[in-house]
Write a structure and sequence with these properties.
mainly alpha, 2 helices
Length: 69
């Protein structure tokens, strides 16, 4: 199995995308159904997972650029 150049492995990356999509979709649904602001927690979780995915993308691009030079 080839070594991943990012922070996450391929499987972790897929699970992170799934978690991001589920949290991002759950936030507006819970905002509609719940009267308090607890839906903001789902939004914060989705933003944190998105940050990890962006950091992984940046690291992979940097590693790919170094490999191509």
């Amino acid at each position: 199995m080839p070594q991943s150049s990012g922070i996450l492995s391929t499987r972790q990356r897929r699970l992170a995308w799934l978690g991001f999509l589920l949290a991002a979709l759950q936030a507006p649904v819970s905002a509609r159904l719940v009267s308090d602001d607890s839906w903001l927690f789902s939004l914060c979780v989705a933003l944190m997972v998105a940050t990890v995915l962006l950091a992984d993308d940046a690291r992979r691009r940097t590693a790919d650029a170094r490999a191509n030079d």
